[in-house]
TrEMBL record:
<keyword id="KW-0862">Zinc</keyword>
<dbReference type="Pfam" id="PF05193">
    <property type="entry name" value="Peptidase_M16_C"/>
</dbReference>
<dbReference type="InterPro" id="IPR011249">
    <property type="entry name" value="Metalloenz_LuxS/M16"/>
</dbReference>
<protein>
    <recommendedName>
        <fullName>Peptidase M16</fullName>
    </recommendedName>
</protein>
<dbReference type="InterPro" id="IPR007863">
    <property type="entry name" value="Peptidase_M16_C"/>
</dbReference>
<dbReference type="InterPro" id="IPR050626">
    <property type="entry name" value="Peptidase_M16"/>
</dbReference>
<dbReference type="InterPro" id="IPR011765">
    <property type="entry name" value="Pept_M16_N"/>
</dbReference>
<keyword id="KW-0732">Signal</keyword>
<feature type="domain" description="Peptidase M16 C-terminal">
    <location>
        <begin position="189"/>
        <end position="366"/>
    </location>
</feature>
<comment type="similarity">
    <text>Belongs to the peptidase M16 family.</text>
</comment>
<dbReference type="Pfam" id="PF00675">
    <property type="entry name" value="Peptidase_M16"/>
</dbReference>
<feature type="domain" description="Peptidase M16 N-terminal">
    <location>
        <begin position="36"/>
        <end position="176"/>
    </location>
</feature>
<keyword id="KW-0482">Metalloprotease</keyword>
<feature type="signal peptide">
    <location>
        <begin position="1"/>
        <end position="20"/>
    </location>
</feature>
<keyword id="KW-0378">Hydrolase</keyword>
<keyword id="KW-0645">Protease</keyword>
């Protein structure tokens, strides 16, 4: 339901000051295990109600991939008290907006309302959790919606890059399968399987509710209990995903895209899950290499040597394993191997010498700015609170994560580049135009 290739970002509606500020919040649990986080800010008459479920593309039967993303759509169909299609009419009719998004690790729903509609937002989310209608009509309807989304996003030029990375970088972990799943799996799924999936993953004890904005804390606590206490606790979700063997020799692969004319080269590495210090440092390395037009790779390959149409280094943050990927599209007759060699030169420089103090300070400034912007609205704060609780296990990272970035030294950047980004630790993918006879 949310567009974007590498990132999941919420467009923010309510702005605050552009300087970092302490975010106050209060947490409590209902008897059914639902974790609740409240953040009060009465500077604007806006409130967000949001629920993040601990379920994503990696969960479920590997012969039934894509269920988490499918439910992102399906749970807007209606409930025992909300008619089919009414969910998406009620919200705008009451001055609100809404959306949802799914990653490999979690699913997130939210509504933003005028603050006098707080109770409505809580009722809608409780209906989704308590008794949604999951029937064949809804399944058939959303099946077509998901197929159209796949056509628009994954079948667009270079839209299969993430699928190519996942299927080649992972062999046994469910990250090998695309978040949207395989359409034949959804086509073959029965209504009983969809209901069983909901019963397993959408219990209150597998979720966090965040209410933020123009609220009264005590009144909101009462409303939360009124609307969510009736939801029954479910059995705890137990996960035991297989572990990947380390990559010790370069793996070469090819992937084909019928929607492109210009090939691309991808070098991708399996790196530590988010929350580890090394993952934070890899974030910095990706920004150093390609964070904007003044970055090392852009200046070299696009501006100066005119060898690339585009170049990017990205650290895709995930819970079990993250993905570090280098990507480039050649200009003219430049060979893919030439582009990769030129990129490797810059990575090797990071491994063999410290980045300059000036570049280090620039990185610190960039991450400070990103951190402030991420929490510059009620919507951003709500998303951060849910994410830090569910995926990182520390809600107060909303206030202290920037200190982790501030503490990263140049020597650590060099050491982490050496540790994870050598050619023998990666998969090299030639991403090629697909010919008609292939």
């Amino acid at each position: 339901m949310k567009k974007g290739l590498f990132t999941l970002a919420i467009l923010l509606l309510v702005g605050f000051n552009s300087t970092a500020q302490q975010v106050e919040f209060e947490e409590f649990d209902l008897d059914n295990g639902l974790h609740v986080i409240l953040h009060q800010d009465n500077t604007a008459p806006v409130v967000i109600t949001s629920v993040m479920y601990d379920v994503g593309g990696k969960d479920g039967d590997r012969a039934r991939t894509g269920f988490a993303h499918f439910f992102e759509h399906l749970l807007f169909e209606g409930s025992e008290n909300i008619g089919r299609g009414e969910f998406m009419k009620i919200i705008p009719a009451n001055g609100g907006t809404f959306n949802a998004n799914t990653s490999q690790d979690r699913t997130y729903y939210y509504e933003i309302f005028p603050s006098n509609k707080l109770e409505l937002g809580l009722w809608l989310e409780s209906e989704r959790m308590l008794h949604p209608v999951i029937d064949q009509v809804g399944v058939d309807t959303q099946n077509e919606v998901v197929k159209e989304e796949k056509r628009q996003r994954y079948d667009a030029p270079y839209g299969g890059i993430l699928e190519a990375i996942g299927s080649n970088l992972f062999k046994v972990h469910p990250y090998k399968d695309p978040n949207i799943g395989y359409m034949e799996h959804l086509d073959a799924a029965t209504l009983e399987e969809f209901n069983a999936y909901f019963d397993k993953y959408y219990g209150p004890n597998n979720a966090v509710l965040v209410v933020a904005g123009d609220i009264d804390i005590e009144e909101t606590k009462k409303l939360v209990r009124d609307y969510f206490s009736a939801v029954k606790k479910r059995p705890e979700v137990v996960r035991n995903f297989p572990k990947e063997e380390p990559i010790t020799e370069t793996i070469k692969a090819q992937a084909f895209d019928k929607n492109i004319q210009v090939p691309a080269i991808i070098a991708t590495y399996r790196t530590p899950g988010h929350g580890t210090r090394d993952a934070y440092i890899l974030d910095m390395i990706s920004s150093y290499l390609s964070g904007g037009k003044s970055s090392v790779l852009y200046k070299k390959l696009v501006d100066q040597q005119k060898q690339a149409l585009a170049v990017q280094a990205v650290n895709i943050s995930q819970m079990d394993y993250s993905i570090f990927a280098l990507f480039a599209i050649p200009l003219g007759e430049v060979e893919l191997s030439t582009l990769l060699s030129e990129i490797d030169v810059e990575v090797a420089k990071m491994q063999n010498e410290l980045i300059s103090e000036r570049d280090h300070q620039k990185l610190l400034n960039q991450f400070e700015n990103q951190f402030v912007n991420a929490n510059s609205s009620i919507a951003g704060i709500a998303s951060s609170l849910a994410t830090y609780y569910l995926l990182y296990g520390d809600v107060n990272l909303i206030n202290k994560e920037i200190d982790i970035y501030r503490s990263i030294r140049r020597e650590e950047i060099q050491a982490v580049a050496k540790k994870y980004l050598s050619p023998n630790q990666r998969v090299e993918i030639e991403y090629l135009p697909k010919k008609e006879d292939q």
